[in-house]
Specification:
By secondary structure, the protein is α/β, with parallel strands linked by helices. It has a domain of 185 residues: Rossmann fold (3-Layer(aba) Sandwich). Helices cover 41% and strands 17% of the residues. The chain has twelve helices and 13 strands. Helix 3 runs parallel beside helix 5 and helix 4 runs parallel beside helix 5. The protein is globular. 40% of the residues are buried. Bound molecules: NADP nicotinamide-adenine-dinucleotide phosphate (NAP). The site of NADP nicotinamide-adenine-dinucleotide phosphate has 27 residues, from helix 1 and strand 7.
């Protein structure tokens, strides 16, 4: 039986990865921080390893004897590049050192489409630098990078307020009206990870973008049309001015510094949101593995809200 070391398993994407891998008969050893606000899943079949990405001993214990590593832990909130780098760059580097030391044959990194535009934000830059850490291991272990676009599904806290509004027939236009963006339902991402793990280890050192099956992504008017179908009535579209978002982002940074929390909406996040092109390309991943996304936005919204989210 394959044994996989998984990081980020207490988070939104990682917890779906965890249940998906278990359902495929994979044995999972998962890292969790005892300080986590999300309790580790009480699944008997999971071997939980306490620790964190800074604690190299815990990483060593995490990866000993495993067949593959899925590194999904990441910082998605924060202010400075240093804060993001500590997790998204040095964290990758620490995982790689543990992987090399224990001769783990396979390493999958859950990066982000944001890494395609590292100049936009500290988050994007830190994810790109994390990828670069992995690229430096070319020839030393078999690795691949996944660059998902915005991911949504049960358990997601970041996109949930926006999706709730859309469900209620209100579409906030956050970004340029004609901006295009890909989306991905979390179950499809989990299936892509397990397909990659099952695939024969021939080629590696690849960087895969992946979307939900809409090659041109979505525009806000298309999201409004989907909202109309979902709700059976025309939605109310509200344009959120960029200046307002920038002011909110700057205020959030000041408040985050004052009260010691890590904000999501920052000036960098606003630059990401207003970037006109977040469309991914599935060509490379479709050639490499037998993976077909199943859930486009209309279906994803139905699934999400039928689960009482
Ligand atoms: N959500 C998206 O739309 C999206 C899109 C593209 C890429 N991604 C990437 O996908 C990954 C997961 O994102 P997510 O949305 O699931 O985020 P999330 O819900 O915030 O989960 C983050 C996970 O990383 C763990 N973590 C953070 N810092 C850590 C550290 N220092 N040591 C050990 N574990 C640490 C967290 O543990 P705790 O429970 O202890 O905090 C949690 O399990 C990230 O790498 C992110 O960049 C996300």
């Amino acid at each position: 039986m394959t044994t996989v070391a998984l990081t980020g398993a207490t988070g939104f994407i990682g917890s779906t990865l965890l249940t998906h891998l278990l359902s495929q008969g994979v044995q999972v050893r998962a890292l969790y921080r005892p300080t986590s606000t999300s309790a580790p899943h009480p699944l008997e079949s999971v071997e939980w390893q306490p620790g964190n990405l800074e604690d190299v001993n815990s990483l060593s214990a995490l990866v000993t004897g495993v067949d593959a590593i899925v590194h999904c832990a990441g910082a998605v909130r924060g202010i400075t590049l240093e804060q993001f780098k500590r997790v998204n760059t040095t964290g990758v580097s620490n995982m790689l050192k543990a992987a090399a030391e224990h001769k783990v044959p396979r390493f999958l990194l859950v990066s982000s489409l944001a890494a395609r535009e590292p100049s936009l934000s500290a988050y994007a830059a830190s994810k790109k630098l994390g990828e670069d850490e992995l690229r430096a291991y070319q020839g030393r272990l078999s690795w691949d990078i996944l660059r998902p676009p915005a991911v949504y599904g049960p358990g997601d806290r970041e996109m949930q307020p926006l999706l709730q509004l859309i469900k209620r027939g209100i579409v906030p236009i956050i970004g340029e009206k004609n901006a295009r963006f890909s989306l991905l339902y979390v179950d499809d991402l989990a299936e892509a990870v397990s397909c990659l793990l099952r695939a024969p280890q021939g080629e590696n050192g690849r960087c895969f973008e992946l979307h939900d099956g809409r090659p041109d992504g979505y525009t806000w008017p298309q999201i409004a049309t989907i909202a109309a179908h979902l709700n059976g009535r025309e939605p109310r579209c509200l344009s959120i001015p960029k200046l307002l978002m920038q002011i909110a982002g700057s205020a959030n940074v000041s408040l985050g510094r004052l009260f010691g929390y890590q904000p999501m909406l920052t000036p960098g996040k606003v630059r990401e949101i207003f970037h006109p092109d977040w469309v991914c390309d599935n060509t490379a991943i479709s050639r490499a593995i037998d993976w077909q996304p199943q859930v486009q936005f209309h279906e994803g919204m139905k699934r999400l809200f039928s689960k009482g989210q």
